Amino acid sequence: MRWGQINTWPNAHLSRRIVGPVHRWHVQETGEGPTLLLLHGAGGSTHSYRDLLDDLAKAHHVIALDLPGQGFTQLGARHRCGLDAMAADIAKLCVQEGWKPVAIVGHSAGGAVAFRLGQILPGKPAVIGINAALVSFSGLAGVLFPAMAKILATLPFAATLFSGASDNPERIKALIDSTGSVLNAEGLDLYRRLVADKAHVDGTLLMMAQWSLDRLLRDLEGFDQNILLIAGTNDKTVPYAISKQTASRMKNADLVLMESYGHLAHEEEPAEVANNIIDYVSGLPQPRSSFTASV
Q: What is the reported pTM?
């Protein structure tokens, strides 16, 4: 997305651009108190937290950022869109800006980034996953989808063709409906604008092409920080059973189920999600004072 469009984006008054490390980051920041860092899912942006920010900011310093190449974050290195690279670059950004999150909130694939980031930031920040995508593709999909993404990411004009063919409002509504969520006209139009943007689609394709959860999934049982998993029971993208299975494998994991909500539960019912996050974080121990990220 071109920076000139930022004034028409949700919570634009909170937006600023940060140069480096690696990328030119788009960040929205508000509130005072213990810091929460919000990470969106693949193909999303800070807009997905548009209605959570005010509620969370009543008790917290809240930072939402666009992942590399997506939304308004300008990609600085095309090879740094995978899970480990993104987490490392965000950790360096936290050091640069002096951010010390007590909790990292991640939606969908952003949930996986939150888990990886929680491993490498000091102080053992809590990790809060909203319909966290903590499962690898299986069977033929595991071979076909990443391979297709790699091919598309290297083809000239692939992002242009994809965005031009996919920004039809009816197609966007069908795509959102397929996740099990119901969004209003504003929410649908924001996704239409994202999908219509070549640079955003290119960044999303690169993320898909470089994505691997193998290392993270092997490490899950060794996590000893506090974990909250929030899952919509109508999620048709990442079934809530994934969150239940993940919680059962971990030492300090709590699970909250949101009945009847889909993959975008935090956009459908932001107040309930915000209350769950605030209640959970209020019971966390104070973070450690040292701050040197091991990236």
A: 0.91
